[in-house]
Amino acid sequence: MTPVWDWTGKVALVTGGASGIGAATALAFAERGGDVIVADVDGDGGGAVAARAREHGVRAEFVECSVAAEDSVRQLLEVVRERFGRLDFAVNNAGVEQRRAGVTECTEDNWDRTIDTNLKGVWLSMKYEIPLFGPDGGGIVNMSSMVGLVGVPGAPAYVASKHGIIGLTKSAALEVADSGIRVNAVCPGNIRTPMVERVLAREPAKETEYTANTPLRRIGTPEEVANAVLWLCAPEAGFVTGHALSVDGGVVAK
Questions:
Q1: Has residue 5 been placed in a domain?
Q2: What's the CA gap between 194 and 45, in Å, rounded?
Q3: In-domain check, residue 213
Q4: What string of DSSP letters covers the chain?
Q5: In sequence order, which residues have a C-beta less than 8 Å from that of residue 167 and are 6 or more positions away?
Q6: Of 7, 89, 158, 210, which one is the catalytic site residue?
């Protein structure tokens, strides 16, 4: 099938691009002609995704980066500036799952690790990404979650981080609107990523639970989330900014 959008010559950065939604998004940009920077702490996985992206005839590089550390993010965007010159799109997807614990059991280390990567990492990424956009603007998509829209027990840091991403997205969207940069968030539901696969490996009954709780009666795919990300970057979404788009099979509509 011919890709809907042709992004030949455009430059996209995807954090957390070594696997799951990030990998699917990086490859979707490459399939449509976009040059891609894959950033992740996983060098083997990130390098493999960049190699697959190059099979589409585009420039693609892996850069090791921890989005929780400002120096690491600054260095990542310096590499982007030196090797690619600018950004047209940025997908801030890097994140970690919280070690399961309720409000009264969650440790400070558990809280800080989750917030630093999931929420501070998105802020740091945008802080250094925004100056690299050109006069024509572009698109930033931040990866929240369906639990950025609703609460669930046993994961206060994760839920707080994903709610925070939506608020941060709205604030950033208003700040940069005059520059033509649109900033949106995507809120995936249960998607068959390595993170969800780890949960299912520990608790196989969760697959039935996730399916039963989803109105479309299945677990989603990383490619379906990537398609939503690309739409938010596309000209067809040119009047959309500050929005949190659910890609969850209808869970939060209930």
A1: no
A2: 12
A3: yes
A4: ---S---TT-EEEEETTTSHHHHHHHHHHHHTT-EEEEEES-HHHHHHHHHHHHTTTS-EEEEE--TTSHHHHHHHHHHHHHHH--BSEEEE----PPPS--TTT--HHHHHHHHIIIIIHHHHHHHHHGGGB-TT-EEEEEE--GGGTS--TT-HHHHHHHHHHHHHHHHHHHHHGGGTEEEEEEEE-SB-SHHHHHHHHH-THHHHHHHHHSTT-S-B-HHHHHHHHHHHHSGGGTT--S-EEEESTTGGG-
A5: none
A6: 158
Catalytic-residue membership of 210: no
Letter for the amino acid at 80?
V
Q: Over the stretch 71-125, which tens digit does the pLDDT of each residue have?
A: 999 999 999 999 999 999 999 999 998 788 899 999 999 999 999 999 999 999 9
pLDDT band at 202 (very low <50, low <70, confident <90, very high): confident
Report, as an integer, the average pLDDT of 148-175.
Answer: 96
Domain span at 165: 11-246
pLDDT band with cut points at 50, 70 and 90 for residue 1: very low
* Mean pLDDT of all residues in 21-37: 98
Count of the separate structural domains present in the chain = 1
The CATH number that applies at residue 34 is: 3.40.50.720
Q: Is the pTM of this model over 0.90?
A: yes
pLDDT band of residue 197 (cuts 50, 70, 90) is confident
Confirm whether 15 is domain-assigned.
yes
